[in-house]
Amino acid sequence: MAVTATSVADTCAAAKRAARVLARASTATKDAALGATARLLEEREAEILDANAADLADERAAGLSEALRDRLALDAGRVAAMAAGVRAVAALEDPVGEELERKTLASGLDLQKVRVPLGVIAVVYEARPNVTVDCAALTIKSGNAIVLRGSSYAERSNAALAAVVREALAEAGLPQDAVALLAGGGREGLAELATQEGLVDLLIPRGGEGLKAALKDVATVPVMYAAAGNCHVYVHAEADPEMARRIALNAKTQRPGVCNAAETLLVDAAIAERFLPAALGDLRGAGVELVGDERVRALAGGAEVGAAEAEDWDSEFLALKMAVAVVDSIEGAVEHVNRHGTGHSEAIVTTSEEAAEEFAAGVDAAAVYVNASTRFTDGFEYGMGAEIGNSTQKLHARGPIGMRELTTFKYVARGNGQIRE
Amino acid sequence: MAVTATSVADTCAAAKRAARVLARASTATKDAALGATARLLEEREAEILDANAADLADERAAGLSEALRDRLALDAGRVAAMAAGVRAVAALEDPVGEELERKTLASGLDLQKVRVPLGVIAVVYEARPNVTVDCAALTIKSGNAIVLRGSSYAERSNAALAAVVREALAEAGLPQDAVALLAGGGREGLAELATQEGLVDLLIPRGGEGLKAALKDVATVPVMYAAAGNCHVYVHAEADPEMARRIALNAKTQRPGVCNAAETLLVDAAIAERFLPAALGDLRGAGVELVGDERVRALAGGAEVGAAEAEDWDSEFLALKMAVAVVDSIEGAVEHVNRHGTGHSEAIVTTSEEAAEEFAAGVDAAAVYVNASTRFTDGFEYGMGAEIGNSTQKLHARGPIGMRELTTFKYVARGNGQIRE
Fold first, then answer.
1. What CATH number corresponds to the domain at position B369?
2. Which of A3, A163, A188, B209 has its CB surrounded by the most CB atoms within 10 Å?
3. Which residue of B has its CA nearest to A366?
4. ipTM of this complex > 0.90?
5. pTM for this structure?
6. Is the CA virtual torsion B398, A384, A228, A233 positive or negative?
7. If you measure CA to CA, which chain B residue comes closest to A201?
8. What CATH number has the domain bearing residue A171?
């Protein structure tokens, strides 16, 4: 398949028509399309890897960092993982048609609140070609159409993968326009996509702050901004120090470049002297650059800790760097998190149930962890099969955006001639 | 109480602090505040009516239409109705703390998804002072704070009512800043309120298209646009003609100035000859100006029907005017509704269950009625006690915005040291 040559508006209009068919497709039909997708991914492995090799050899990929090249690269294992992911989505419950509520109103109307697909989902993403398949699988199963806009340097890989999904849709008797891939088109193309009011029901940007800022300026369609994560680990006075060390280390270092990695470590004054030297030693040992407030620096033991600047408390480092502060109480920790956090993922380590509940209730975030790493905020970990993004907004959906988050509802009221008096 | 003299930002910041207390207030405490509000409304009736009389006598109210003066005017009955409304909200179930989901993840984490308040709700409204009390009651019970911005010509009435609610909050031991009333401040004040990112969690405009357009230009906080309603009644081939006449007449004329009133009547070709003369006669008899397509005009019998212009199909008349078209099939009706409708409320009249289900599934709207008037889309009719607005957006909430729609959720994951491998 060539990257869609028609205009953005035409592509979105075709997706809207397809969405009306997908919305009413049976679970069996949608699962058949997903099954065919998984099978075709395996059958077309060679073609897909050829397309990917061409992308990697292209001059557009020459300037990429090693990390980005790795994210772009496919191999047999990654293709197999995509197929397995599609089968996992097929195995999940179909959210469409779920009756959310039913009651008889005073007027005698039988009021049903039923889950329906949103319609057309647009996803703007970078680098990883597997996003093409993951997102298409989630939208197909949830009865939506999808308009994908990947990176130009992944163009051939994305096209090969979208072609597989479109062939699978046709095999299942579903409209191919339910999965469309747009050519990049630069900032202008992005603006065109973000202003398709009435055609695009939700736009999900998966990318950095530059992409989000560009969208905030122009978007008129609903946008769900994927989260920036300034996440905290708070070590309470009654924490198990060994557990706290493991959690802080994991939250910071297991994958520092992602949004649910921790950026700040808050340590209760009552445990600071006992906890800090070893914990900071762990972090330094893992190559983490540390900055701290005065109390932290005084209690650092042998660990090297720079002086924290005011902006460090508001920074999503996305790197092996961590800010560390001592707080005087759980109230102080909650206040620090609510002032500096981005509402993503926050953790407390404590053996006190009371402290855990106070932190969980007081912190305003999508996810709060008690005695666990912040790294678990993820659609796959949450049993959603996959995620199309992650939200720190409060409206509609918070946290991982899975199939259910790609739906809305409709009221259907059945009567026998009711009129309003 | 004087209208809040502090800045918009200060008022919103104080509301945010109060919201954190409200979020954790018990149901009993919130109900005590609502009970006190109802009691104080009754006790302060004379004061409230004096303030309202001063508003009505003010030169700012001199230019108002008779309809707007009527909406502004209070009397003993309207004050009593407000008190009854507050007691009705108190009697509803508290949405906060509801466990929406709970499961044990593969990692062993105990994941709970729990309903929490949104935080600070801002409401911009016109004329009717009872909105002050209705909205405050809904936000208090749902654990939110509210920042109200009413019309300048209702300033004294709104201030008297807000003072009652604030006194009731204090009586229940809750922070008064949970209910704040802003002075108008014109377009500049509106823009200031609409850009309080991090303080205002949701802004709900209750007003005309001018207000919405003004907000779309400036708002950076989440806005839920109250609906424009271009609603349809479709009379299916197998409709009971008498029922269809009653429903069409009610949907158009029972209260033509509201968003759930019908603007267009669609009549299936198979029933048009039998149905149209009498139905159009009813509407003309009720003073409705009719415009129609050629087939309608040919079958109108004695009723006067003008020629419909293209824009009539997209118009929310909000008046005793209706556009009428003949459609060839249920598919044609669904297509017309999806092309011209605003996703608010749509009705089909039919004795065929199959046709009803096809229409309900095919129409993309917040509410679909089978054999009932579109006029039922309303928080009170839906058993939500009241509504703070009505949404035709698909994200977060569709249809009446009640207490539950003023909440979001939070994931709380409890572990015993889980880290991500």
1. 3.40.309.10
2. A163
3. B410
4. yes
5. 0.92
6. positive
7. B394
8. 3.40.605.10
